[in-house]
Amino acid sequence: MRNRFASITIAFVTLLAFSFILPPQSAAQQAATKPPQPKTASHAPNFSGLWTPRPDGIKINTWDSSDPFGEKPELAPMVPWAASKWKEARPPFGAKQTFEDINDPVQRFCDPPGITRIYMYPWEFTMIQTPKIVYILYEFTRVWRSIAMDREHPKDPDPTWMGDSIGRYEGDTFVIDTIGFNDKTWLDHTGHPHSDALHVIERFRRVDHDTLELAVTIEDPKAFTKSFSGKKYFVSTTSPMEEAICAYSEYDSFQKTVIDPATKSPSK
Prior knowledge:
By secondary structure, this protein is an alpha+beta fold. Helix content is about 20%, strand content about 25%. It contains five helices and nine strands; from the N terminus they run ααβααββββββββα. The termini are far apart. Mean pLDDT is about 85; it is low at about 1-35.
């Protein structure tokens, strides 16, 4: 034991001595020692793995960078019909949060949340990258989408829940351009509506090895007077995706057994 302690002491003293002799690393040298951003076999930026919302961004309720937490959703640049429809929304999140007479299409009918709102739920997603198609699989509601890498949008796409998505790589960024939506989803947790003219741009990039940035830009000339954008961050996780299926029977049971007794006044 004594010899082992002496060896450790000598090694520690030697390390200290060298620390005074060696010059400090330059910023360029430090950058060179960082692990490189992962690449796919085709040299595209690699976004594989499981991603979950970074804890400080879970409460983000809108894509408007001027009001990310949805504290003043009435200030969104809505045209009159969209503002009127928004006022009718009774969401379980955000500034208008309520658990009475909720008309959230996800909570009430298990409708798909749509591709801008789905990132606001505290569930994971993963990407599967191939040269011609990139797939994104979402834990919440077990929905998935495909992003075509080898074509343009059709001239007159059929309106769908997830829209028609095409993608491209710009350096270390994966850009997704999506049109062809129906008008049945909310853009966010506060109930902002959209029309069938919705155009969404998503930009994914790795800030570092374990952090993914998603920048979303929303354009919809039928519903908003100008475009707006926001960001959300995700972190790498080793926790496997679990079953998170939207089942109307479960929502209905939860409404009747938990929400209604907690929110409605007892009858006399």
